[in-house]
């Protein structure tokens, strides 16, 4: 069972070490919940949250890579197969890359003045770049979670559909 939010906190707040006692799926869900609850805003708190998210993602990626190695060892059970774990690690790596690409516009927005018209126009571009990278990171996290979903057994094929009856050919007069 994943750790509960700390007393007094209404938000999910996880430290990297909290992820070690969770199943791979629970750990991914915990990171997604933490990211959802701690928004990236164009201020010092948003910058702090972004670095926390990167820390969680890096820890989780390293853990997934280690789980792949353990899954490949004989007599290790209780983990998803190496394929989904490896795919999850790759998706988490993409999320880290997007968070890292989001840092320059976020730092510019949190540290630079926005007094002149040109600075305000530039900030629109920074906000746009920030949003694109955070949205792409979110898609990578969704893909990581999807990779760990239990595959459904293939559907049992039903009886073949009857072949359509052909209408008799009609000759046309020339």
Task: Summarize it.
This protein has 174 residues and is mainly α. It has four helices and no strands.
Question: Which features would summarize this protein structure in a list?
Answer:
174 residues; mainly alpha
Describe the 3D structure:
- The protein is elongated.
- Helix 1 packs antiparallel against helix 2 (44-72), helix 2 (44-72) packs antiparallel against helix 3 (82-111) and helix 3 runs antiparallel to helix 4.
- The longest helix is centred in the last third of the chain and has 31 residues, at 117-147.
- It contains four helices and no strands.
- By secondary structure, it is an all-alpha fold.
How confident is the prediction overall: mean pLDDT? 82
Which structural class fits the helix and strand makeup?
Answer: mainly alpha
**Topology, number of strands:** 0
SS element count, helices: 4
**End-to-end CA span:** 80 Å
Helix content: 55-70%
Q: What Rg is obtained from the alpha carbons, in whole angstroms?
A: 24 Å
User: For the report, how would you describe the main beta sheet?
Assistant: none
């Amino acid at each position: 069972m994943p750790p509960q939010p700390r007393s007094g906190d209404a938000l999910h707040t996880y430290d990297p070490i909290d992820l070690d006692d969770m199943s791979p799926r629970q750990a991914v869900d915990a990171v997604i919940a933490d990211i959802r609850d701690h928004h990236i805003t164009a201020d010092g708190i948003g910058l702090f949250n972004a670095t926390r998210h990167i820390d969680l993602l890096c820890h989780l990626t390293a853990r997934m890579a280690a789980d792949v190695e353990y899954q490949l060892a004989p007599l290790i059970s209780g983990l998803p197969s190496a394929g989904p774990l490896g795919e999850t690690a790759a998706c988490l790596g993409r999320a880290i890359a997007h968070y890292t690409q989001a840092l320059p516009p976020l730092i510019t927005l949190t540290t630079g003045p926005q007094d002149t018209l040109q600075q305000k126009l530039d900030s629109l571009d920074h906000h746009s770049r920030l949003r694109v990278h955070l949205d792409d990171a979110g898609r990578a996290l969704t893909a990581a979670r999807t990779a760990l979903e239990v595959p459904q057994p293939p559907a049992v094929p039903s009886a073949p559909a009857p072949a359509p009856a052909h209408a008799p050919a009609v000759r046309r007069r020339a």
